[in-house]
């Protein structure tokens, strides 16, 4: 089958020329709409809109503002993290201080109980010496040191104390009296 020149010519008129014209029309319309699929330098159909330029400037400014705000947010986030870490460290430190305080309070309670027990024992001893004859109480108390005697005297009435002190040697009675002041 031989293709004749007339068939080729017919093919060109029916298929090729309409396709070329359709392509040219498509490119012109796309350039007019600003799509620039195939830029044609001598044919610039796009219309410059001053409002569009203003909007582009505003958009650029807003994008810069957004970048600035994102930077600020980043810095604030870092500062927040630092403060959070500091707060956690302070919370741990406070917890340790509270533990120390609790231990000290427990020790204080123990010492108060010991002092109360000692006070009760001294009161009991003072009561027993108060019920003894003065000479017998003085003879026993002279064997104790001055601080122990003074602790016992604190729980005795003044008449009993003076009677017992009068039974001591004068220098010892004077020493105890000085320490009681």
Describe what you observe in this structure.
Residues 52-121 form a coiled coil. This protein has 181 residues and is an all-alpha fold. The protein has a domain at 12-47. Helix content is 81%, strand content 0%. It contains 6 helices and no strands. The longest helix is centred in the middle third of the chain and has 82 residues, at 50-131.
How many β-strands, per DSSP? 0
Largest sheet: none
Shape category: rod-shaped
Quick check: average pLDDT? 86
Total number of helices: 6
Q: Give the radius of gyration.
A: 55 Å
Question: SSE string, helix = H, strand = E?
Answer: HHHHHH
What percentage of residues falls in helices of 4 or more residues? over 70%
Runs in which pLDDT lies below 50 for 5 or more consecutive residues are none
Structural class per helix/strand content? mainly alpha
Intertermini distance: 146 Å
Strand content: under 5%
Transmembrane segments: 12-33
Coiled coil: 52-121
Keywords: Coiled coil, Membrane, Transmembrane, Transmembrane helix
Domain Magnesium transporter MgtE intracellular: 99-180
Keyphrases for this structure?
181 residues, mainly alpha, Mg_transptr_MgtE_intracell_dom
């Amino acid at each position: 089958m031989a293709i004749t020149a007339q068939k080729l010519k017919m093919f060109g008129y029916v298929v090729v020329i309409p396709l070329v014209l359709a392509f040219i029309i498509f490119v012109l319309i796309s350039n007019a709409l600003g799509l620039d699929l195939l830029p044609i330098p001598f044919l610039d159909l796009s219309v410059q809109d001053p409002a569009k330029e203003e909007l582009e400037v505003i958009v650029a400014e807003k994008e810069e503002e957004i970048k600035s705000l994102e930077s600020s947010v980043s810095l604030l986030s870092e500062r927040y993290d630092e403060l959070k870490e500091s707060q956690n460290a302070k919370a741990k430190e406070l917890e340790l201080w509270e533990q120390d305080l609790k231990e000290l309070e427990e020790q204080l309670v123990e010492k108060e109980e010991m002092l109360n027990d000692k006070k009760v024992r001294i009161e009991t001893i003072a009561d027993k010496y108060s019920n003894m004859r003065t000479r017998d109480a003085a003879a026993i108390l002279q064997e104790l040191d001055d601080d122990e005697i003074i602790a016992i005297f604190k729980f005795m009435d003044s008449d009993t104390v003076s009677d017992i002190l009068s039974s001591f040697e004068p220098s010892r009675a004077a020493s105890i009296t000085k320490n009681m002041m």
